[in-house]
From TrEMBL:
One of its GO terms (cellular component) is cell envelope. It comes from marine sediment metagenome. The lineage of its organism: unclassified sequences, metagenomes, ecological metagenomes. Its main location: other. The keyword Kinase does not apply. Belongs to the bacterial solute-binding protein 5 family. Keywords: Signal, Transport. This is Solute-binding protein family 5 domain-containing protein. GO terms for molecular function: peptide transmembrane transporter activity. PANTHER family: PERIPLASMIC BINDING COMPONENT OF ABC TRANSPORTER, PERIPLASMIC OLIGOPEPTIDE-BINDING PROTEIN-RELATED. It is found in: Cell envelope. Residues 7-224 form the Solute-binding protein family domain.
């Protein structure tokens, strides 16, 4: 329920304004800040909400948030003293390494309670067969993805869906990387060596291209 998708939305405002309900003059919020200005694709300005009754109110009066889509542009803005902080995780891996070294004295790495995952459409073939889903998991080397492709900015999800730090986290319950077992399961499901396996789509965004390319290569190499 802490995800933004679960936040309450004022139905009467949406019904009254339709697609413009998020405009500055229409939007209704219930958090510690109000939307003062919003330039799409550029920035948003938030000001302290005087009627917020949360337990932690803080002392920040105004925040300007960069909405630039290009992470390199945001990094440039940070280096020009235009931002107080900047998330490096959106940078390409090579640029991320350079930025971490260039700003070593300012770089801070902290864990977040998040799990990134690949979801399968289990309502139709081929992923309606649990053997196929298990084969794809067994054919994936999470450690290399986390430590190599993503430069150690994440940790392998070896404790199931619930991340460390949350109740229900179970260390070590995830399936290991076992390409031999993966190929056996895929053959049992009717796709020996990957033969006859249909083309499947793997939608992603620009931030996840390295993830997708790595997974594609892993599955091609380990499953055929």
């Amino acid at each position: 329920l802490t995800l933004s998708r679960s936040y309450p939305v004022p139905q009467h405002v949406v019904e009254a304004h339709g697609e413009t309900w998020t405009d500055v003059l229409n939007i209704v919020t219930n958090g510690p800040f109000r939307l003062e200005a919003w330039q799409r694709g550029e920035f948003a300005i938030l000001t302290r909400n005087p009627v917020y009754h949360g337990r932690t109110t803080g002392n920040v009066q105004r925040v300007k948030v960069s909405l630039l889509a290009d992470p390199a542009a945001r990094l440039g803005l940070y280096e020009a003293d235009g931002l107080d902080f900047f998330h490096l995780c959106d940078l390409p891996a090579a640029d991320l390494d350079r930025a971490r070294h260039r700003h070593a004295g300012e770089y801070l790495s902290v864990p977040t309670v998040t799990t990134h995952y690949v979801g399968f459409d289990v309502s139709r073939p081929p992923f309606d067969d649990p053997r196929v889903r298990r084969a794809f998991v067994l054919a994936t080397d999470r450690e290399t993805l986390a430590d190599g492709v993503l430069r150690g900015t994440v940790s392998p999800a070896t404790g199931g869906f619930v991340p460390p730090g949350m109740l229900g986290h179970s260390p070590g319950i995830a399936l290991p990387c076992d390409p031999d077992r993966a190929r056996l399961l895929l053959a049992e499901a009717g796709y020996p060596g990957g033969r006859g396996f249909p083309d499947v789509g793997f939608p992603t965004d620009h931030r996840r291209v390295p993830h997708g390319e790595y997974l594609q290569a892993q599955w091609r190499e380990n499953l055929g």
